[in-house]
Design brief:
The chain is of the alpha+beta class. It has one domain. It is built from three helices and 14 strands. Strands 1, 2, 3, 4, 5, 8, 9, 10, 11, 12, 13 and 14 form a twelve-stranded antiparallel β-sheet that branches. Helix 2 (about 165-180) runs antiparallel to helix 3. The longest helix is centred in the middle third of the chain and has 18 residues, at about 165-180. It is globular. The two termini are about 15 Å apart.
C-alpha cells in the first residue's frame, strides 16, 4: 500500500548570485554576500540546522528545519503515524548545479545529489534519486516557475508571512538594536551591511511569491525500509515519485521554503494522479 509523506519547512542555501561565478565564496557583484564574521558560501542546500548559518534577527519568523506534516497510508490520513513530525534531510551536501545558466537557468537548477531521508527513532528512512548521476542532470532540473497570484497566496499560507517587505522593516529595527548593544565589531558591521542591503534592494521582496516546481522518480537505494511496516521489499523495487516546490526566497536570511510529497510504495491507480 502506498505511503504518502507530506513535508514542508525552511531550508537555507548560501550561494553567490549572478553575475558572480557560481562558486564565488563571498559574493562580489550579485545580490548575496558573506558578511564580516560569516563563513564562506558552500552552495549546500540544508533542510536542517546542522551546518547552516542562521543570521541574527531572522527568528522567530524563519527557522531552518523541514519536517513531515502529514502521513497518508493507502489514501487515508494516518493520525499518530511514527513518521508524522519526522525531520526531513537532504544528505550528502547537495548543491544547486545551475552554474550560471550553463546547466540550467535560475529557478530550474538541478539539486545534485538527491538523497531524501526521514528521521525516526534515531534512524533514517529514505531513498536516493539514483546510485549514479549523469551530467547535465536533465531529470533533476526544475519543471517550471509559477509567479501567479495563486502562487503568492500559497507561499504566504505555507510560510505564514504575507508581506516580506514589512518583515524586512521589522528585521532592520532588530538589527539596529543588535548594533547598539553589541561590542562585537564584526557582528555590528554585518548587521549594518544587512540593513543597507534591505533598504537599497527592497524590490527583491517581489521574488518572495514565486515557486519553482520539481518532479522526479526516486529509483536509487532505499534505506531503513524496515522502519516503515506498511512497505514491503517489493516496494523498494518500484520508483517512488516525489513532487515539491521551492519558494518564499528571502535574500537577507538566505532561506527559502520547500513543500511537497513523497509517495513510497505502489503509485496511485490510473486516473488518480
Amino acid at each position: 500500500m502506498p505511503v504518502e509523506l507530506d513535508f514542508g519547512g525552511w531550508f537555507q542555501l548560501r550561494l553567490a548570485t549572478d553575475p558572480d561565478p557560481h562558486d564565488e565564496p563571498r559574493g562580489v557583484s550579485g545580490f548575496t554576500w558573506a558578511y564580516p564574521g560569516e563563513p564562506d558560501f558552500d552552495r549546500t542546500v540544508r533542510f536542517q540546522p546542522a551546518g547552516a548559518y542562521p543570521r541574527v534577527a531572522c527568528d522567530p519568523e524563519i527557522r531552518i528545519g523541514v519536517s513531515v506534516t502529514e502521513v497518508r497510508v493507502d489514501g487515508e490520513v494516518a493520525a499518530g503515524h511514527p513518521l508524522t513530525g519526522a525531520a526531513v534531510n537532504l544528505a550528502d551536501e547537495p548543491k544547486f548545479e545551475g552554474r550560471n545558466g550553463i546547466v540550467a537557468e535560475a529557478g530550474f537548477e538541478p539539486i545534485v545529489p538527491f538523497r531524501l531521508l526521514f528521521r525516526r527513532d534515531g534512524r533514517w528512512f529514505g531513498r536516493s534519486y539514483a546510485d549514479r548521476y549523469e551530467f547535465p542532470y536533465a531529470d533533476l532540473r526544475g519543471k517550471g516557475i509559477d509567479f501567479s497570484d495563486e502562487a503568492k497566496a500559497d507561499v504566504a499560507k505555507a510560510t505564514g508571512i504575507a508581506d516580506l517587505g514589512l518583515l524586512w522593516q521589522e528585521r532592520q529595527r532588530r538589527l539596529a538594536e543588535v548594533v547598539a548593544a553589541t561590542e562585537d565589531e564584526a557582528l555590528a558591521e554585518a548587521c549594518r551591511c544587512r540593513i543597507d542591503f534591505m533598504r537599497e534592494n527592497d524590490y527583491l521582496v517581489g521574488d518572495y511569491g514565486l515557486r519553482s516546481f520539481y518532479a522526479m522518480d526516486l529509483r536509487g537505494p532505499v534505506e531503513g525500509l524496515d522502519l516503515v511496516p506498511e512497505l514491503s521489499r517489493a516496494d523498494a523495487e518500484r520508483p517512488w515519485p516525489i513532487r515539491f516546490w521551492m519558494g518564499g526566497w528571502d535574500f537577507d536570511s538566505l532561506c527559502g521554503f520547500v513543500q511537497g510529497t513523497l509517495t513510497a510504495g505502489p503509485g496511485p491507480a490510473p486516473g488518480q494522479d
